[in-house]
Amino acid sequence: MSQEKHQYVHLFTGKPQVGKSTIIKKIVNALGVEMCGGFYTEEIRIQGNRMGFRLVTLDGQEGIMAYRGLASPITVGNYGVDISCLDELGVKALYQALTTKKLIVIDEIGPMEAHSHAFRQGVMDVLASSKPVVGTIVWRSDSWLDAVKRHQRVKLYEVTLTNRDAVVEELLKQVDL
Predict the structure, then answer these.
(1) Are 104 and 98 in contact (CB under 8 A)?
(2) How far is residue 127 CA from its own chain's centroid?
(3) Strand 154-158 vs strand 103-109: parallel, antiparallel, or unpaired?
(4) Spatial CB neighbours of 55, under 8 Å, sequence gap ≥ 6
(5) Pairing mode, if any, of strands 9-13 and 133-137?
(6) pLDDT digits (tens, 9 = 90+) for 57-88
(7) Whole-model pTM above 0.85?
(8) Chain segment 140-165, per-residue pLDDT in tens
């Protein structure tokens, strides 16, 4: 097992709707959930309109992390953000993966998630580990998000409609579990 293959935190970035979360799901499906831990996010759509975001842990727990009109002291765009969902499900899943799984999955590192101090600490603890990580990070600039992107372990991939399938194949070659 090559240490070099484990040194990176592989983060996918790109425009919304380009397929970043789909890449994460394909990688998890290829490797199997018994090797992977963490979480991903899914859009909640009603009659074609995006209404919010669901957080789903790889061990099957889920909760609504953000929703249009949700009463919350934290809002991002039109969405009220439920930080307790992220802290109780997502952050817990990160630490569990750090101690029990071979690959950590974080989908996504973005402006909603950055409002959680526990999540920010969890990401920093994951970056400080030697475990391989795959995740997504928002394209836009923000001081904390930019610091994550510049971290020495991070290898950033810009995902486009034309390269998204090749990115999955390339990453599976690099992550040797």
Answers:
(1) yes
(2) 13
(3) unpaired
(4) 39, 40, 41, 62, 63, 64, 65, 85, 86, 89, 90
(5) parallel
(6) 999 999 999 999 999 999 999 999 999 999 99
(7) yes
(8) 999 999 999 999 999 999 999 999 88
* Backbone angles phi and psi of 52, in degrees to 5: 180, -165
Select from 176, 173, 167, 156 the least CA-distant residue to 24: 167
Residue 91 and residue 116 in contact, taking contact as beta carbons nearer than 8 Å:
yes
DSSP secondary structure letters along the chain: --HHHHS-EEEEE-STTSSHHHHHHHHHHHH-TTTEEEEEEEEEEETTEEEEEEEEETTS-EEEEEEET---S-EETTEEE-HHHIIIIIIHHHHHHHHH-SEEEEEEESTTGGG-HHHHHHHHHHHHSSS-EEEEE-SS--HHHHHHHHSTTEEEEE--TTTHHHHHHHHHHH---
Record the tokens describing residue 19, joined without a space.
């397929």
Shortest CA distance to 93 belongs to which of 66, 117, 65, 62?
Answer: 62
Specify the pairing of strand 9-13 against strand 154-158.
parallel
**Domains along the sequence of the chain with CATH:** 3-174 (3.40.50.300)
Tell me the one-letter amino acid at 89: L
Burial code (b: 16+ CB inside 10 Å, e: under 16) for 118-134 equals bbbebbeebbeeebbbb
- Which of these, 133, 159, 138, 160, lies nearest to 149 by C-alpha position? 138
